[in-house]
Design goal:
The chain has 193 residues and is α/β, with parallel strands linked by helices. Helix content is 48%, strand content 16%. It has 2 domains: 1-40; 41-188, Rossmann fold (3-Layer(aba) Sandwich).
Length: 193
């Protein structure tokens, strides 16, 4: 009886020791990656519309408005935006491994309080033209830039940043040009959902 107790205790301890050892190896690997990324100050950029979020509901709500009222309506209705699963997982994984993540939104900076509070763990830039987008991408020197629009891919390539295309949902109302693969960029499969 005592022999069985000793044997089962030994097996139990070995099992938990192996689990602990595995945890320590994984944690150590993560710590090295996290530290390296932080020391090198690596960052990743994301477009917002149809990259991190499916925003067509907000665009639909504002479709009859013009200029500043249009952007005000879209920005105030960020609660209508739906998170895109695969890009959001990439975003959170990058944060987990220590990457600084920035979001570039192709809209005017009007009534942005709601959208800023929704993504408060990232630096957000509102741009109204391609030159502004290029300046941000070029100055920040992102390791990777995830884009949906042709403009995002073009500006990343001009800034010598590696672009990756996030596919657009078929029902998207995003007005920016979209031609996947046209510039030889990599695409994330199933990223349209």
């Amino acid at each position: 009886m005592i022999k069985k107790i000793k044997e089962s205790t030994k097996l139990w301890l070995l099992k938990w020791y192996k689990r602990f050892k595995t945890f320590v190896y994984l944690f150590s690997t993560w710590a090295v990656i996290y530290s390296t990324v932080n020391v090198l100050e690596l960052s990743i950029g994301f477009e917002y519309d149809d990259v991190l979020a499916y925003t067509s509901q907000a665009y639909l709500k504002a479709k009859n408005l013009k200029n500043d009222e249009f952007y005000k309506e879209i920005n105030e209705n960020s609660h209508l935006d739906r998170i895109k699963i695969i890009p959001f997982i990439i975003y959170k994984t990058a944060k987990l491994f220590g990457f600084s993540t920035d979001i570039i939104i192709d809209r005017k900076n009007i009534s942005t309080k709601k959208i800023l509070s929704k993504w408060k763990d990232s630096k957000i830039y509102f741009v109204s033209d391609s030159n502004e987008k290029y300046e941000i991408i070029n100055n920040k020197k992102y390791l990777i830039f995830f884009a949906n629009s042709d403009d995002g891919i073009i500006q990343a390539k001009k800034a010598n940043v590696y672009p990756i295309r996030i596919k657009r949902n078929q029902k998207s109302l995003n007005p920016l040009p979209y031609n996947p693969g046209k510039f030889g960029e990599k695409q994330i499969p199933l990223s349209q959902f």
